[in-house]
Write the C-alpha cells for this entry.
Amino acid sequence: MIVWTVANQKGGVGKTTTVITLAGLLSKQGKRVLLLDTDPHASLTSCFGYDSDELDVTLFDLFTENDLSLDNLRKLILPTNVNNISLMPGSIALATLDKTLGAQEGVGLLLDRALKTLAVDFDVAIIDCPPVLGVMMVNALAASSRIIVPTQTEFLALKGLERMMKTFEILRGTNAKELKYIVVPTMYDKRTRASHESLDTIKKEYENVLWTDVIPVDTRFRDASQEHMPASILYPDSRGVKAYQMLLSDLLMLEGQAHG
Ligand SMILES: Nc1ncnc2c1ncn2[C@@H]1O[C@H](COP(=O)(O)OP(=O)(O)O)[C@@H](O)[C@H]1O
Ligand SMILES: [Mg+2]
C-alpha cells in the first residue's frame, strides 16, 4: 500500500483540497483509497458531509483504545459518497492527544502500525495533517512513503514552508527512516505579481524538491467542497483538476521508481 501524507505547518494552503482531489482521481482509476483525517478541525471529514461531533468513533479512538487488530481498525472507517474512497474521520478530541500521549514510547509509530494492518483493504492511503507539529504530524510523517507539501504561492506562505523544512531536519535526526517530500505550489494565479515572485523564490530555494508544475487557482475547488464531493469527480475537466492529474501521474511514477 502506498501511504502519502499531505502536510504544511500553515493553514489554508490547499492541504485538504490536495488530499480529496487526489483521492477522487485515484478512485476513478479503480484504486481503493483510505483517507485519514488527523486534523482536529476535521475539515476533510466535513468535506464528505460528516459532522465530526456526531460520530461515535473517529481516528481519536485509534490512539486511545490500544487495539490495532484488523477488526477493530475497520470499525473506525466510514464509507463516503464516492466509490472506492473510505474515510477514517477526525474529531476535535485529536487536539488533546499531545497532552495525554505526549512523548510516550512508541506512540509516534501507532499510525504506521495501523496502516500496515489495513494494507489488506486498500491500495493507497492519504493522510491529511493539521498545521501544527505534534503527535499527529509525527505519526503521519513516520507512516508515509512520501510527503506532499502544498505551498500557496504568496509570501506569507513561504514561512510555513520554511518551518516544515526545519521539522523535516529535526525528524531526520531522530528518525531512522528517510523522509521523502515534494513541494507543490498551489493557488497559483498567473495574473498576479505575488504569485510570480513567490514562485521564483520557491524555485530558488527548493529547486531539488520542487514539483515541476503548479496547481492553478480554480474556484471549482470551493464549489466542489460545498457539494461534499471531490472536484475531480464533479469537475474533471477543470484546470485545477487537470493539474492534480499531472501531479498524481508524477507521484505514481516516483512510487514506481521507489519500488522498482
Ligand atoms: N487551487 C485552488 N484554487 C482556489 N481555491 C483553492 C485551491 N486550493 C484550495 N482552495 C480553497 O482554499 C481554501 C483552503 O484550502 P484547504 O485545502 O482547506 O487548505 P488547508 O487544508 O491547507 O487548510 C478552501 O476554501 C479551498 O476550497
Ligand atoms: Mg485542511
About this structure: The longest strand covers residues 146-152. The first helix runs from residue 15 to 28. The chain has one domain: 2-259.
